Amino acid sequence: EARTASAIGHPGIVDVLDAGELADGRLFLVMEFLDGEDLGQTLDRYGALPALEACALVRPVAEAIGVAHEAGIVHRDLKPDNIIVTERTTGTAVKVLDFGVASNQAPQQRQRSAAATTPGMVIGTPEHMSPEQALGEPAGPHFDIYALGSVLFTLIAGRPPFVDDNPLKV
Prior knowledge:
By secondary structure, the protein is an alpha+beta fold. Helix content is 37%, strand content 18%.
């Protein structure tokens, strides 16, 4: 995750400051401190948002994810809980978090990324997952584009586009 997020270097993506392994073998990750709430918390607190407000929150995410795609990185788990909104003196900042299951499609990283995920393995959150991702097809920007549309729907409707008690039915 540290390599992936730091490779993008965009203000709309959380900064990873350090990463490593402790003496006992546990891994650690140090990210910038973000004082705010994720969009899942915002939905829990306020419910559905006005369409213009939802679009204003999703636009910087689309820009950040576009830069990630240009770098060959597919997030694979965009959802309200992985988008944080902070208030700064310069205004509202929206940041994408959690590149832990991202797929790096850049030629020099493909082998490492492929080794981290078994072909056909399904990774992500079912409520915001594209049909192709749910079928275990190879990762691509379309995964994130679909998920971002699902996030926008969720912000406006107050619920994901498809809901079921059984995640396999979503």
